[in-house]
Design a protein that fits this description.
Length: 130
């Protein structure tokens, strides 16, 4: 039995199979996900489970070398919240929301949350621990 950290067995299994430069998106409840992308759906009701909780749990399990957010999120609470985790998130990249959605067919894993903050989606690029 796992002592601490992320306990969701399906999510842990997907994370364990990731490699260097693989992409993972953690998205709000409205992010359109393309067919064929593995999805771990954690949305229970609007606002629960929130993206911040999920991202913190994921960052406890994987190494991230860069992350991408939508430029439309600038000025809102989401980028400032990410700044507090800059050491764990690596380089920040910004792109349009449309371009972020165009990245989705290439992700190895999508995690849907109940988040309702506009443009609260982040694409993580996996790194290595050495």
């Amino acid at each position: 039995m796992k002592r601490s950290g992320l306990l969701h067995a399906d999510l842990l299994g997907h994370l364990a199979r990731l490699g260097h430069t693989d992409l993972v998106v953690i998205g709000d409840r409205g992010l359109p996900l393309p067919p064929g992308v593995p999805v771990v759906d954690l949305a229970l009701v609007p606002g629960v489970v929130d993206l911040r909780t999920v991202l913190d749990a994921v960052l406890g399990e994987v190494v991230v070398q860069a992350h991408t957010i939508a430029a439309e999120a600038a000025g809102g609470p989401f980028p400032a919240w990410l700044d507090a985790r800059a050491d764990a998130l690596g380089e920040r990249r910004e792109t349009s929301h449309e371009q972020l959605k165009a990245m989705l067919p290439a992700v190895r894993l999508a995690v849907r949350t109940g988040e309702e903050t506009p443009y609260a989606n982040v694409v993580l690029e996996c790194g290595v621990p050495f």
